[in-house]
Specification:
One of its GO terms (cellular component) is plasma membrane. This protein is of the alpha+beta class and 483 residues long. It is built from eleven helices and 14 strands.
Length: 483
């Protein structure tokens, strides 16, 4: 199970899962916007360089068979003192000879492709000049007269200061807008989470303010649809808890009531023994105390067994075992009791039937069933124990020819401390816990138990037949804990 401390805050986790991907996406978007802005800036500045190159190209002429260029001083000053960055130019003749400008300006490399953006023979490329990076527009300008014609080369270069300044401004503006967007989204998400989680926090407040004894349901309508299954599960858990606590209270009340009588008898007998001087009478009182103590110990053991089965303590202790072998052992343990009453106790179990169960509790169940049959079957009666395999379950039957039970008593016999009228009259020393323990053990092993009256020679439901000559009560236990 994951450590609860590792889960942390729901609000914090939601913000992290939302904002971290958002920041990454914003960064990618800012990078894309920045690159697009740089491309737009380069396009604008390249257009400016091309315009300058065209202005120079229009002043190229052929004079006396030589290529010349007439650059006014105003144009030269603008090249030298441009506020956006330093500009350089160079004009080369039709044979590559230097005409005007900066003679050492880098020439056009051979591998630079012509720009397809503008309707002109222009090439744009980056180079280094006087220790600074520059951008150059190289324009091929046709020149001709009546005697010669050719193509001159006009190069206009610009330092990257202006471009870099504009790039930084675009980057800062982009990052600022994206940062403000992230902050706004984080604030909105935090406010939304505060609003959305309010019903859940209100539910926790209601739960914290409840009295310990208040196990009533919470209304699922106070939370969102996605949280309602949790509220319904919590209500179901509290209902089971209420049922468990009610069962414990009922068990404690019944147990205290049942133990109060023998303890009161023991106290009375002890007081009588203290006042008695006759050794014979004293011995009789001590014998009565011993009998009462045995009854009390038997009752206490039954109560402990019922408490253990009722609260599922043994559920984690189930192991693979043979129900056939267990039934055989219990029959041998109780055989002496049957012999004393001249009863015929038979075990019909031809097949080894195995299941997963709690050996001690199954032993207690078999002991209660068979001991009840021996106790309430008249002397000379017959008792048959059957262990039968089924496709998806195990069938255990205990049949006797005792007096049986009425339909009303069959419904109540599994309640703790209930005793049928006939059994109370014939065996006043019983506790009324045997069949209740049997019922709890059967439920723990995912089974069911039924009581049926069997008349002589009648067929039973489920395909089994009673032993000929036996009529009485049939206890059928079906267990589902197969191996």
């Amino acid at each position: 199970m994951q450590n609860l401390d590792q889960l942390g805050s729901l609000r914090g986790q939601f913000l992290r899962w939302l904002l971290i991907p958002l920041v990454i996406l914003v960064a990618l978007n800012a990078f894309s916007v920045y690159n697009n802005a740089l491309d737009a800036a380069d396009l604008a500045y390249d257009r400016s360089l091309l315009s300058s190159a065209r202005a120079l190209g229009e002043r190229i002429a052929i004079v006396d068979g030589k290529v010349t260029v007439d650059v006014p001083y105003v144009a030269l000053d603008s090249f030298e003192t441009d506020t956006l960055g330093r500009l350089y130019y160079r004009v080369s003749g039709i044979h590559g000879e230097y005409i005007s400008g900066y003679e050492d300006l880098p020439g056009l490399p051979k591998n630079v492709a012509r720009s397809d953006i503008y309707p002109a023979l222009v090439h744009f490329f980056h180079a280094q000049y006087q220790g600074q990076p520059i951008r150059i527009a190289a324009l091929h300008q046709p020149v001709y007269d009546d005697r010669m014609r050719g193509i001159a080369l006009v190069e206009v270069a610009e330092t990257l200061d202006a471009r870099r300044g504009m790039s930084r401004k675009i980057l800062l503006d982009t990052l600022l807008r994206q940062a403000l967007l992230v902050i706004a989204v984080a604030l909105l998400v935090w406010l939304a989470l505060r609003f959305v989680l309010h019903p859940l926090l209100q539910l926790s407040y209601y739960l914290a303010e409840r009295e310990p004894t208040d196990l009533s349901d919470f209304s699922p309508l106070i939370v969102h649809k996605e949280i309602r299954p949790l509220v319904l599960a919590m209500n179901g858990y509290m209902a089971r808890l209420d049922q468990l606590i009610s069962g414990q209270k009922r068990f404690i009340a019944d147990a205290s009531h049942q133990l109060r009588t023998p303890l009161t008898v023991l106290k009375t007998q002890a007081e009588l023994a203290l006042r008695e001087d006759d050794p014979v009478a004293m011995r009789q009182i001590v014998q009565s105390i011993a009998q009462t103590t045995d009854t009390t110990v038997y009752l206490a053991n039954r109560l402990l067994t019922l408490a253990r089965t009722g609260h599922g303590v043994a559920e984690m202790e189930m192991t693979e075992l043979s129900l056939t072998q267990l039934a055989r052992e219990v029959c041998l343990e109780l055989a002496l009791s049957a012999v004393r009453k001249q009863q015929d106790l038979a075990l019909e179990a031809d097949t080894e039937v195995r299941l997963r169960g709690h050996a001690l509790l199954l032993h207690e169940m078999l002991t209660n069933l068979i001991d009840n049959a021996i106790t309430y079957t008249p002397a000379g009666g017959q008792i048959v124990v059957r262990v039968l395999p089924r496709e998806t379950s195990v069938l255990l039957e205990v049949q006797d020819n005792g007096p049986g039970l009425s339909d009303t008593e069959k419904e109540k016999v599994f309640q703790p401390f209930y005793r049928a009228l006939s059994s109370s009259a014939s065996h006043p020393g019983g506790t009324g816990l045997g069949m209740s323990i049997v019922s709890e053990v059967v439920q723990l092993h995912q089974g069911r138990i039924t009581l049926e009256d069997v008349r002589r020679g009648a067929a039973l439901a489920g395909g089994t037949s009673p032993t000929p000559g036996i009529s009485g009560l049939l206890v059928r236990v079906q267990l589902s804990c197969l191996v």
